[in-house]
Write a structure and sequence with these properties.
The protein has about 260 residues and is an alpha+beta fold. The protein is built from four helices and 16 strands. The strands form four sheets. A six-stranded antiparallel β-sheet has the order 3-4-7-12-9-10, with no helix packed on it. A five-stranded mixed β-sheet has the order 2-1-14-8-11. The chain starts with a helix and ends with a helix.
């Protein structure tokens, strides 16, 4: 019986050690600019808390893929590569957000003349994410439109001259939900000039993890992920199986002694 207990205890230890920790709620923030001239942004934009960490994608010094920090300030394994033609800055005279706390985010941008990609790597594999994209062009810009495409969804952001210094969905930001990273932890989206515009601009990005890796929580079946027993449940099942095996051996020996 002692040996049986030790075997069961070993099973519990093995299963508990293999428990995977989910990363739901992890948030990554990115702003664009030049390290020597762009003020650090610490606002919440459309998600998160005031005072959170934003990564500055610096066109002068950063060589992609650029390692990123979580909004909490802790290090991550995630990195990003952003394609663009140049880093731009809006003249304060034509900047809707001038003088506001959100100006460091919305005044500086990555500019593209054609479809350009943003590629995240080393995310949690087979997990879902919500993407927030921020885009503002100058008040005097002609036909200011930026097309954002992710996961088969396309959204055109326009900046009408009457827009106020507030975040308005469809004007200067959009959110796209249920984006899924691939089996290697990669996730990409594109931005480009709108159909009536000459340039596409990208002021900021927020990427929020909304589910753990499906590889951790289940097995993909015809009806979606199939639940996998909790480690503690699996361990108890193993203990039960060991006891049953021991009982069967005991009963078999008893029967043999009676027949004799």
């Amino acid at each position: 019986m002692k040996n049986l207990f030790c075997g069961a205890l070993a099973a519990v230890i093995i299963f508990n050690c293999s428990t995977a920790e989910a990363s739901v709620g992890d948030l990554i923030n990115i702003q664009f600019g030049l390290s020597d001239t762009t003020p650090s942004y610490t606002g919440q934009a459309m998600y998160g808390d005031a005072g959170q960490t934003w990564n500055l994608y610096d066109a002068d010094v950063d060589t992609p893929p650029v390692s990123l920090t979580y909004a909490s300030g802790s290090a991550s394994d995630v990195a990003v590569s952003v394609s663009f033609n140049t880093i731009g800055v809006i003249n304060k005279r034509y900047d809707r957000f001038a003088g506001t706390a959100d100006d460091p985010l919305m005044r500086y941008y990555a500019l593209a003349y054609e479809t350009s990609a943003v590629d995240f790597v080393n995310l949690d594999a087979d997990a879902t994410y919500t993407l927030y994209v921020y885009s503002q062009q100058a008040v005097n810009a002609i036909n200011p439109e930026t097309l954002v495409t992710a996961g088969g969804t396309s959204v055109t952001l326009s900046n009408p001259s009457s827009a106020t210094p507030l975040f308005v969905n469809g004007y200067n930001y959009t959110s796209i939900s249920d984006l899924r990273s691939d089996e290697s932890g990669n996730l990409s989206f594109t931005y480009s000039p709108g159909s009536n515009s000459q340039i596409g601009v990208l002021n900021g990005i927020q990427l929020l993890q909304t589910s753990a890796s499906f590889a951790d929580v289940g097995i993909e079946g015809d009806d979606g992920p199939m639940p996998v027993p909790e480690p503690s449940t699996t361990a108890l099942m193993s203990i039960g199986a060991l006891f049953l095996a021991r009982y069967e051996l005991f009963r078999k020996k008893k029967d043999e002694s009676i027949s004799l």
